[in-house]
Specification:
Blueprint lengths: L1 E8 L2 E7 L4 E2 L3 E2 L1 H11 L3 H80 L1
Antiparallel strand pairs: 1-2, 3-4
Length: 125
């Protein structure tokens, strides 16, 4: 088998592959090629069925892993959303409490001022 480099491009390098005939008169037949062909031909129906079942099992396990990873990402996202909502709720509660405390202080100051003004007027009479 020969490979000749064609033209180089930024996306990679292209090759032209030239296949020799399996029985080249110069080198003779490749004993490995004959061995591979005989092994492939020896594949029985039961062995092919086992290979198909194994491939199906690998596909199922791969799908399970993908779904598990997607489930983990979804749960992590849900946790983040819940934490964010809880943080917003806590901040709102703190601000509401601070406003209420400030309002009560102002109300008490106004009440004290009104009472002292009323006492002052009663003393003048």
């Amino acid at each position: 088998m020969k490979d000749e480099s064609l033209n180089k491009r930024t996306s990679g390098q292209a090759f032209e592959v030239i296949l020799k005939s399996p029985t080249d008169p110069v080198t003779g037949p490749d004993p490995r090629a004959c061995l591979c062909r005989s092994q492939e031909g020896a594949l029985t129906g039961r062995a092919a069925e086992k290979k198909l079942e194994a491939a199906e099992e690998r596909r199922r396990s791969q799908e399970k892993l993908i779904l598990k990873a997607a489930g983990l990402k979804k749960r992590e996202h849900e946790k983040e959303v819940l934490n964010k909502a809880q943080e917003v709720n806590n901040n709102y509660s703190k601000m509401a409490e601070e406003k209420l405390i400030h309002k009560m202080e102002v109300s008490n100051e106004n009440r004290s001022a009104r009472l002292s003004a009323l006492k002052q007027r009663l003393r003048e009479k």
